[in-house]
Amino acid sequence: xxxxxxxxxxxxxxxxxxxxxxxxxxxxxxxxxxxxxxxxxxxxxxxxxxxxxxxxxxxxxxxxxxxxxxxxxxxxxxxxxxxxxxxxxxxxxxxxxxxxxxxxxxxxxxxxxxxxxxxxxxxxxxxxxxxxxxxxxxxxxxxxxxxxxxxxxxxxxxxxxxxxxxxxx
Length: 169
Known about the structure:
Layout: H1 3-30, H2 40-63, E1 66-74, E2 80-87, H3 95-102, H4 108-121, H5 124-128, E3 132-141, E4 146-153, H6 157-161
Antiparallel strand pairs: 1-2, 2-3, 3-4
Helix pairs in contact: 1-4
């Protein structure tokens, strides 16, 4: 695959991610996720709100084979709740099928989070061609929401793709 084609795919994926981010940002605005500057009470309310959203999503993620790791809350304008999610392979459903089944029961933020995970895994085949695979995924519940994919080198694959630096003969 040429670099230009990879770059085009990355631009297309970024455009899709932007759509999901805008949907989630609107959901956060509608849900009262704004933090008034300098307001301790608003910060606490926002943290409680975001933790409640996450706690409602954890059973859904587990059903799809994901585990939730560390959390980090950043006091900022807007505030951020970072969640580390990883696949444990114990799920019985795909994210797509679960979203179809339960979308009406999930909040807008939860739907945007699941869609963000789905979008992240659309990169799996692309990064595999370059000797990597998706590791943990960091979800940031904020305005705008963010999905960070941590890439890990696939043992043996990356070495096959690199040019040989050992001159023959």
